What does this fold into?
Amino acid sequence: MNEVFPRLKTVSLATATAGAIVRIPRASTSLLALVTDEPAVEDSRSFVILNATDQGRPRAEFVNNWSNRSGLLAYDEPLRYELSMAEANVDVSGRTWLGVPGALISLEDEMYLQAAIFQSHFGSIRCVNIRNGSVFKGQIPNYSIWTFGVWSVCLRDPIHQQSTALFDFDVHKQWHA
It folds into this structure.
């Protein structure tokens, strides 16, 4: 049997697995998105756009109940998030990047992606678990929060034993002019 890498499947937004990375078709391109665990309402679902391109907006945006009837491409491979541990890319206290869209935060044994709420006032943030898509419902503790400003999502090719970058994020370059 022939192998295809990466393994892909076409799904609807309503049936996409929480925590999955999907490609949502747009007019001339596609959006890369992290699907949340919030229940679908008809054809609508909440997700985080990872590669938003709107001027003056961050790349990571939380979209609440977006309706999409076209098929999405879902990656049917285990994903791997790789964090840069270089001193310039880690905020050990959260004083610099806590609340910054796109930066990852560590809360206990989970990692959350901070995302600006789409079409809301500046500073509104939702945190989504990168492993399972759950939306953080509690209060972010005000003690020291490790935040990670440079990271990537990779697909692991099991045959060739190598990673292929699917998406890169750098907090130092995240805003669109």
